[in-house]
Amino acid sequence: MKKFTSITAISVLLCLVVVFLGWSGGTKEEKKATSSPATQAPAPGPKLTSPVTIRFATMSLGTSMYVYASTITQLVQPELPKGSSFDVQTTGGGVSAPYLIAQGKADLALGNAAPARWAVEGTVLGRPKAEGVTALVGGMDAPYIVIIFTDKFVKKTGFSSVADIVKAKYPVRVAVKTVGGLGEVACRHVFEIAGATYNDIKSWGGTVSHVAPTEIVSMLRDDKADITIDHVPEGQAAITELTMTTSVQFFGLTAVEQDKMAQLGWDKIVMPKGTWKGQDKDLLTMSTGIVLLASASMPEEVAYLITKKICENKKTLVDAHAAISVFDPKTAWMPAKVGAPLHPGAARYYREMGYMK
User: Fold this and answer.
1) 158-216: pLDDT as tens digits
2) According to the CATH classification, is domain 144-287 in 3.90.190.10?
3) 252-276: per-residue pLDDT in tens?
4) What is 2-141+290-352's CATH topology?
5) Max Cα separation, the chain?
6) Rg of the chain over all Cα atoms, to the nearest angstrom
7) What pLDDT is stored for residue 46 in this prediction?
8) What is the pTM of this model?
9) How far apart are CA 249 and CA 228, in angstroms?
10) Where are the domains of the chain?
11) Nearest one of 171, 140, 135 to 153, comparing CA atoms
């Protein structure tokens, strides 16, 4: 992000001018009043004057993350100086998000709180610690792990859980997202707590197909797959389409299975009945919310602007995707919701609003 250098210099000069002209003559009482978030609106922050280049990594077309990224871009881009570039790139998200930033392949990326924490703490098996990763906004949605069997598969086998499949060592045909997304990790973890790996499934004569969301729908509809497991928010396009074109059944986890998933870093949640067409009862499952991650090298002014535009335009975001209705800017900074350390620009916004101390 080389184009940001001049912005930082200008910001420092502006801040010095403000300190010299604006604060030097105030009384203690005046200073106390201006510092209170309850009585004064937040300062607008230094104005951006030089063009910036931002690479925004997200998941593929058809995913909820792509919708989020496109909407955030529409909110932020008009506020950037002329000549700026704010490009959405379908280079990955979810589990891979912090690594894309750490490797310098993206300036922004949509991930999930738990994988972000795993990455920055260096606890992901086979992967190095993700350095230089910060967070801007967390808790943007509350996705669910969905376990979906085709109606034909249920009638044929009588199975109602992944544990049933594993116990029978059935040659199940699994359609799942590509490696690098949290949907794939969700699938792998659900099988893992049931006592099986992808290699075990293949040894039983089954298959594991890593494909795009649209192809998962096609495979289940055309009887080329029996089940899928994903991590998606309510209303996600591919799963919604699946329920409208194919007879499927949703299944949950047991309390014991929830405990095992929690040990892997997931959060317990209940998916209310009616969340999806054909889901006629509440289901125990797991979740970890969306967080917008940013490179630590992103200038404070840019991080501040992005955080501000997201937090102050919730309605626009919800209009784009209903799952964002759970988003609460007042708690978007909390460690459990962001996973990674807050970027200074984001922290400044939350402090000015009085959301955090």
Assistant:
1) 999 999 999 999 999 999 999 877 899 999 999 999 999 999 999 999 999 999 999 99
2) no
3) 999 999 999 988 878 889 999 999 9
4) D-Maltodextrin-Binding Protein; domain 2 (3.40.190)
5) 81
6) 23
7) 56
8) 0.67
9) 11
10) 2-141+290-352, 144-287
11) 171
